[in-house]
């Protein structure tokens, strides 16, 4: 195991922080995997999974069974992790810019595309593998050429530089109160469908561009757009496939759950040939993958006490009661009902709803949204 430390831009004197990465497996391996946890620093189930993976990867490396180069970042956002306010852990938004830590990652598509266009005849060829290597090299160079202007950007750039050349990117998150689910692209779904089975994903939401420049898409979208631009002239593979894994809810930090999740990642890696060995038989997928455009955010119509009628992991029909919102002064009881049939996979932690607040998420089958597809 190799341990590296990456200093972050210090926002004010005396507040130096860093991101630590751990590297396993042969440096010259054919394929590579990047795993990070707790970019949203109030989402800690992934940190426990990452800590367990650290030990598993060390053991696999010692046994000579790791066939991939693995980079692991168990604490992806130390600045967010130190946001404790009056006994409440925060960590989802940067205090300075009020930006969501998993939005607005640096986009280097224009730099790579302009550079490739300028020397396309020499940089690209009819060899897909060589093109992949060339684009990855330019990806890294483009990110390294950027000087971060803030601690927020500095965190983003360190993580992007660590992950930009990996074949597979696993970003470990969780929701507020939820069952197992994940986000990936339609193009990467065949790669991650076996993971969804081992993980027991109750909702697998697919989108190519969800509009937020989140960590997973800051890699895949660049490849998608390069394929659009150069694909009719040169073979351009998907040089990065990424997935955002939602490890249930914020309170679900338990050894048995984390052991199960770490094992799901190991099983998928074995299935994909990144670890030597025999992968267990693939379990059935609990719920089919659905377009992110078909997912419904269910909103509170008024402010008031939020009383849920269903648990996460419930299959609902259109019109089913999800919750009541009660105004105890006006004696008004507003019902929140499912707009379409689907899997209710996540719900709010808050029990005092504000008017318009997202109450629950339902993975449906009827695509009806476009543009920005994510929560704030
Ligand atoms: Zn998150």
Question: What keyword list fits this structure?
Answer:
single chain, 376 residues, alpha+beta, 9-stranded mixed beta sheet, 5-stranded antiparallel beta sheet, globular, binds zinc ion
* Basic shape: globular
Summarize the helix and strand pattern as letters: EEEHEHEEHHHHEEEHEHEHEEEEEEEEE
Distance between the termini: 37 Å
Oligomer: single chain
Write out the strand line-up for the largest beta sheet, numbering strands in chain order: 1-2-4-3-7-11-9-10-12
- The rounded Rg comes to 21 Å
β content, as a range? 25-35%
How do the helices and strands line up, and which of them pair or pack?
Blueprint lengths: L1 E6 L10 E7 L6 E7 L7 H18 L5 E6 L4 H4 L2 E2 L2 E2 L19 H10 L1 H4 L4 H17 L6 H13 L4 E8 L1 E2 L2 E4 L4 H11 L3 E4 L10 H14 L10 E9 L5 H17 L17 E3 L3 E5 L4 E5 L5 E3 L4 E7 L4 E6 L4 E6 L4 E2 L4 E6 L13
Parallel strand pairs: 3-4, 3-7, 7-11, 9-10, 10-12
Antiparallel strand pairs: 1-2, 2-4, 5-6, 8-18, 9-11, 13-20, 14-16, 14-19, 15-18, 16-17, 18-20
Bound molecules: zinc ion.
């Amino acid at each position: 195991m190799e341990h590296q430390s990456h200093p972050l831009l210090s926002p004010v004197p005396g507040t130096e922080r860093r991101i630590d990465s751990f590297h396993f497996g042969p440096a010259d391996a054919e394929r590579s995997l990047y795993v990070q946890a707790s970019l949203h620093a109030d989402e800690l189930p992934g940190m426990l999974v990452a800590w367990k993976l650290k030990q598993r990867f060390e053991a696999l490396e010692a046994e000579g069974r790791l066939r991939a180069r693995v980079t692991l970042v168990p604490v992806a956002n130390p600045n967010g992790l130190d946001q404790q306010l009056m006994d409440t852990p925060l960590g989802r938004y940067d205090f300075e810019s009020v930006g969501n830590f998993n939005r607005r990652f640096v986009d280097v598509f224009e730099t790579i595309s302009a550079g490739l266009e300028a020397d396309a005849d020499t940089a690209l060829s009819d060899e897909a593998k060589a093109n992949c290597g060339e684009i990855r090299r330019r990806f890294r160079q483009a990110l390294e050429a950027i000087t971060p202007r803030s601690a927020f950007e500095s965190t983003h750039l360190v993580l992007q530089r660590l992950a930009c050349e990996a074949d597979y990117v696993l970003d470990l998150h969780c929701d507020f109160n939820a069952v197992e689910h994940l986000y990936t692209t339609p193009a990467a779904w065949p790669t991650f469908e076996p993971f969804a089975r081992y993980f027991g994903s109750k909702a697998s939401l697919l989108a190519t561009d969800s509009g937020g420049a989140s960590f997973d898409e800051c890699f895949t979208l660049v490849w998608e757009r390069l394929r659009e631009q150069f694909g009719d002239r040169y073979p351009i593979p998907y040089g990065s496939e990424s997935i955002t894994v939602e490890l249930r809810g914020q309170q679900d930090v338990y050894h048995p759950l984390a052991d199960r999740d770490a094992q799901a990642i190991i099983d998928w890696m074995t299935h994909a040939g990144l670890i030597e060995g025999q992968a267990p038989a693939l379990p059935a997928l609990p719920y089919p993958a659905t377009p992110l455009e078909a997912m419904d955010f269910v909103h509170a119509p008024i402010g008031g006490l939020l009383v849920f009628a269903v648990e996460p992991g419930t299959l609902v029909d259109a019109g089913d009661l999800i919750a009541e919102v009660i105004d105890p002064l006006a004696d008004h009881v507003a019902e929140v009902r499912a707009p379409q049939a689907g899997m209710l996979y996540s719900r709010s932690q808050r029990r005092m709803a504000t008017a318009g607040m997202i109450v629950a998420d339902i993975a449906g089958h009827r695509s009806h949204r476009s543009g920005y597809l994510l929560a704030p």
